[in-house]
Specification:
Two copies of one chain form a homodimer.
Chain A (H helix, E strand, L loop, with lengths): L8 H17 L6 E2 L2 H8 L3 H14 L2 E4 L3 E4 L7 E3 H7 L2 H22 L2 H16 L3 H18 L3 H14 L2 H10 L2 H19 L3 H24 L28
Antiparallel strand pairs in A: 1-3, 2-3
Chain A binds a DNA duplex through helix 3.
DNA sequence: CACGGAACCAATTGCCAATTGGTTCGAGGT
DNA sequence: ACCTCGAACCAATTGGCAATTGGTTCCGTG
């Protein structure tokens, strides 16, 4: 931010001194710098001057600081977690369906390519369970289990993590009730049939057919959701339904990592 | 686990008592149950008997417990975070490339469909930056920025989160050095050209071409990585290289969510 | 007016005690 | 001899407190 020329002499002197220190400590295990107050006293300058120098070094990416933690050499480490709440907040329900329609057919294709006989057996069992369940909760549970099993059979643990990421956003309680409104006996019957078709394609190792069947299934689910969202909600007994709307998505605010 | 018939009488009595309690408190805001010791005293039974009953209820999914936290009514809440370290640990480098080859071409296709003129301008600028950079670190940085920009232009915030998930695993320090070994002037020249082709396809809104160009690019990257991993590593000065191998992936251990 | 020092604010860490579910072991009764 | 129960112990979590540390504001000094 601040051009070098505008820095006071003391800060510039500190900068040179610090660069030398960083160079020397680059191969050391001591990646932590002394506290600002101590470091300022060591160099023999004031804290404001030191902070101006550190500001430059941080902008250059040579160090990183955090209140309460300290000052460290090297690039800022990426956070070891992904905040699901943040992701959920930014994501529109239709975006979830779009993402599923891109990811899950691909997983079905991979599953068809890599499924063992035991895998197929498991998928068939799950598909049957989906059909046998009578209460809505049970069906939803087995449905979810089937989709995840396909993702597992695909045999790529990173893509499985991707599936879980999408799935967790999908199971956010705010959208849970949105799906409940889309449920119906007729639609459930069709779901069961579509599931059977996907599993059958995987069982016969027909990758393209599995991908197509899954895409068709999700397309149907998507249409159901769209219809619910388009129709004027008659049963407006839920004040929280406003929160499910969030219609806008400014690209400038699409930021997850550093 | 334990069949109901094998439970002692006291536990069965506690079970009935607890079911009634759960039924009554289902609509209350008090989702937390008293500590086991207190609850046992209230009901008038011993803690072992109470715990057997709670074990059943937990297996049924009506309550969930955690050491140090307490016992709560309802389904176990999903963790609000994804542990990147866990994901990294389970994932083989080639799985990362496979995942990228599935995801990023799709993002390039979506980007071609949804790019604004401003978006295209930005992508062109980034592609040029990649070509202009001379030091290896700078190139890697701009390369990463270009790939992410494409993911942003795709316009689906959930798929952007998916991209970030994969990207963070990719940037794990263990594999960083793997990529460093694959670098070469010749390959970098080709990368630049492939990037240009992807951006050009997006600029002309040719979705299929963009997808194809990105797939070709990643296929090239993947081959480079594969060659490095296949060749006997001459410079075996890194004892940690063993950790990058992890060749096996037992499907039984593929579990992320509940 | 500009720079520097001091004081204050806010976030983080480490520590300790209390709480709570999980486990083990022995007493006591059938 | 076996099973059940109570007690003690173990381990994980929470909350509060003090100390540390980067971030900010304010005022004195030259």
């Amino acid at each position: 931010m601040a051009p070098l020329d505008t820095l006071p002499d003391s800060s510039n002197a500190a900068l040179e001194r610090l660069r030398a220190l960083l160079e020397a400590a680059s191969s050391q295990k001591e990646q932590r710098l002394p506290p600002e107050r101590v470091l300022a006293a060591q160099i023999g300058i004031g804290r404001p001057a030191l902070r101006r120098a550190l500001e430059v070094l941080e902008a250059e990416g040579r160090i990183w600081r955090h209140q309460g933690k300290g000052t460290f050499i090297g690039p800022r480490p990426s956070e070891p977690h992904i905040d699901m709440e943040e992701v959920s907040k930014r994501t529109h329900p239709l975006e979830v369906m779009d993402a599923r329609m891109e990811i899950e057919p691909m997983l079905a294709r991979l599953a068809a390519l890599r499924a063992s006989n035991g895998d197929v057996e498991r998928l068939v069992r799950l598909a049957n369970k989906t059909a046998e369940s009578f209460d809505a909760d049970g069906r939803e549970l087995w449905d979810s289990a089937l989709h995840r099993a396909i993702a597992e059979v695909a045999g790529n643990s990173l893509l499985l993590a991707v599936f879980d990421l999408i799935n967790r956003v999908r199971q956010d309680r705010t959208w849970q009730q949105l799906r409940e409104r889309a449920r119906s006996e007729e639609r459930q019957r069709i779901y069961v049939e579509q599931h059977r078709r996907v599993v059958a394609a995987v069982a016969q190792r027909e990758a393209a057919a599995a991908e197509g069947a899954m895409r068709e299934h999700l397309s149907f689910v998507r249409d159901g959701l769209l219809r619910i969202m388009t129709h004027s909600q008659v049963g407006g007994d839920d004040p929280h339904s406003v929160e499910t709307t969030m219609p806008f998505n400014d690209k400038k605010e699409l930021q997850h990592g550093t």
